[in-house]
Structure formats: C-alpha cells, structure tokens
Amino acid sequence: MVGATGAVGQEFLRLFVERDFPVASLKLLASERSVGKTYLFKGEDIAVEEATPEAFEGVDVAFFSAGASRSRALAPAAVAAGALVVDNSSAFRMDPAVPLVVPEVNGCAMTPESRIVAVPNCTAIILLVAVNPLQKLGKLDRLIVSTYQSASGGGAAMMRLLEEETRKVICGEEPDPSHLGTRYAFNLFSHNTPINEDGYNEEEVKVIAESRKILGLPNLKLNVTCVRVPILRAHSESVTVEFEGPAPSVEAVREALSVAPGVRVIDDRAGNRFPTPLDASGQGDVLVGRIRQDLSNPHAISMFITGDQLLKGAALNAVQIAELALGVRR
C-alpha cells in the first residue's frame, strides 16, 4: 500500500481486517520521511518502507493513495513486477485504456487483462452509486449537483486545520492564515481547486468527465457546483435527476434505491429524518433521502445523498475493486 500514513491509508488497514481481505503479507510504503513508522496490523507491527520502484517485487496487489505524481512515477514499476494496481489518484482516470470503476455501477469495465484500475473522484462515486439505479426507470438527460464536501477530502492535514481553527474561533482567537486563502471554521467556500476559463473549478470538471465515463454516457448533461463545508468527514450532495421522459414516481425511485447495492434509504418525512454526514461517517453505504418530485419540472426528481469520503469515496471502493478482480465476494 503506497500512501500508508495518510487518512485514506489508515482506512485501508481497518478494511483489510473488517472485510477479511486475503492478505498473506502486507507491505506499507510511503515517502522517505515516514520510513520507520510502525502500524499495527493483525497483532503485528509493520514498519513503513520507502516507496521506490524496487519495492514492488513479489507484490500481487498494489493500492496507491499518495497522489497523482507518485502514481505516475511508481505504478508502471508495480505493473512490471506483476502487480494489479488499484489507483486512488487522478493519474489514470481519464486514460481510455484504464477502467474507471465503481463496482456497484460498472464492475464489468474491468477485464482479466486490466493491470491498472482507477478509483474515481470521491464525489463522483457517491453520486453515481445513488443515480445509477434510476437508469432502469428512464433514460437520464441531465444531472444538477451541488456538493457539501468535508475536510476529509483534503486529507488528514485539512481535517487537522479545521479542528485547530474551530478551537481558536470558539476561544475568541483569530486563526492563522492558511493555504486555503479563507477561514475554514464556520465558513463555506468554493472547492479549493483551480478555476478554469469557463468558471468551473477542477473538482467540478472531474465529476462531470468521470461521471460520463463511468456511466458510458458521453453526452450526459451535468451542471456541478462543489463547495467545502466545515464538516470533518463524509460528503453530501443535493441532486436533481432529469429524465428524457416523464419522471418516475417517488415510490418507484424509493423502491429502486432500496434494493440497490451500496445504498441505504433514510427518507422519513413524518419524522423529518434524512441522511446526515454523521450517519454516513464510518460506514460504507451511500445514504439517500429527501426523495421528491421536482415541482418545477415534470421530468425531474430531487434527492439528498451523503457518503463517507474516506470509505466508499476512496478506500472501500478500492478494496471492492481488488475483491472483484480476485474473485473474492462480499
């Protein structure tokens, strides 16, 4: 596992145990500055080694979660050593030769010849686990998505930043300036990625392009707005799904979602009980609620979804990909 010391890397360790992933031996890899750190796995202290091209000798499955540059530099060496690479970065997502996989949606995109499989953007994963089951109810025409993205999307460092700023503000202190260019605590701001000439940030562009590739719908219309919110963990999304014909009934949508893999419906109108990031944190399902007809458009339904960015949005999706490739069913 490359990137063992990060927030997603720690989730891998937990998932390997929880899901009884068939690990004969585990090698933890990271940058030179992390060499020598130890992590407990099944009662054994495993020391972190430096991630180098030579480190993949004898490795069957290599999970990458250390950023696109490290994946580009080291994934070819892992493949050359005979490993299946499951990459959690953006390095290979839009490569036509690399499957971009959400197992509940397009697991069939993988073949026995696939040596690199890309894990999609976390926001796209959570979105499509909830949207894909609706395809059997009608042809999709357009998705309108507004996101409420947590600090976990920026890794352990951003989670620490939010905690530190919150403590200072509560104590009446002004937080130190950060790389975000704005205060995070008790604030909302456009996703902290570059803005293109059309006014869309990089995260929004990723969600649009990756959703089209995963669904196999290159002409699907999407409008996406990505926003950071002061939540530690789990991303939420407000989604309007427009169909080419009349929208299915709320009852049909609820039924399709209730039997879909990886989805849990929380849609109690009487009790005003719907998905929250706290509900989603620490578990693997995408939670869906607020299912309703769009009163402004007879061809559309709206819903609110939330999912754990570190799990289904990252580590869990990667482990599921490896399980599918290895023929391990969960």
TrEMBL record:
<keyword id="KW-0486">Methionine biosynthesis</keyword>
<keyword id="KW-0457">Lysine biosynthesis</keyword>
<dbReference type="Pfam" id="PF02774">
    <property type="entry name" value="Semialdhyde_dhC"/>
</dbReference>
<keyword id="KW-0220">Diaminopimelate biosynthesis</keyword>
<comment type="similarity">
    <text>Belongs to the aspartate-semialdehyde dehydrogenase family.</text>
</comment>
<dbReference type="GO" id="GO:0009097">
    <property type="term" value="P:isoleucine biosynthetic process"/>
</dbReference>
<dbReference type="InterPro" id="IPR036291">
    <property type="entry name" value="NAD(P)-bd_dom_sf"/>
</dbReference>
<comment type="subunit">
    <text>Homodimer.</text>
</comment>
<dbReference type="Pfam" id="PF01118">
    <property type="entry name" value="Semialdhyde_dh"/>
</dbReference>
<feature type="active site" description="Acyl-thioester intermediate">
    <location>
        <position position="122"/>
    </location>
</feature>
<protein>
    <recommendedName>
        <fullName>Aspartate-semialdehyde dehydrogenase</fullName>
        <ecNumber>1.2.1.11</ecNumber>
    </recommendedName>
</protein>
<dbReference type="GO" id="GO:0019877">
    <property type="term" value="P:diaminopimelate biosynthetic process"/>
</dbReference>
<feature type="active site" description="Proton acceptor">
    <location>
        <position position="235"/>
    </location>
</feature>
<dbReference type="GO" id="GO:0050661">
    <property type="term" value="F:NADP binding"/>
</dbReference>
<keyword id="KW-0791">Threonine biosynthesis</keyword>
<dbReference type="GO" id="GO:0051287">
    <property type="term" value="F:NAD binding"/>
</dbReference>
<dbReference type="InterPro" id="IPR012280">
    <property type="entry name" value="Semialdhyde_DH_dimer_dom"/>
</dbReference>
<keyword id="KW-0560">Oxidoreductase</keyword>
<dbReference type="GO" id="GO:0009088">
    <property type="term" value="P:threonine biosynthetic process"/>
</dbReference>
<keyword id="KW-0028">Amino-acid biosynthesis</keyword>
<dbReference type="InterPro" id="IPR005986">
    <property type="entry name" value="Asp_semialdehyde_DH_beta"/>
</dbReference>
<dbReference type="InterPro" id="IPR000534">
    <property type="entry name" value="Semialdehyde_DH_NAD-bd"/>
</dbReference>
<keyword id="KW-0521">NADP</keyword>
<dbReference type="GO" id="GO:0004073">
    <property type="term" value="F:aspartate-semialdehyde dehydrogenase activity"/>
</dbReference>
<dbReference type="GO" id="GO:0046983">
    <property type="term" value="F:protein dimerization activity"/>
</dbReference>
<feature type="domain" description="Semialdehyde dehydrogenase NAD-binding">
    <location>
        <begin position="2"/>
        <end position="111"/>
    </location>
</feature>
<dbReference type="GO" id="GO:0009086">
    <property type="term" value="P:methionine biosynthetic process"/>
</dbReference>
<dbReference type="GO" id="GO:0009089">
    <property type="term" value="P:lysine biosynthetic process via diaminopimelate"/>
</dbReference>
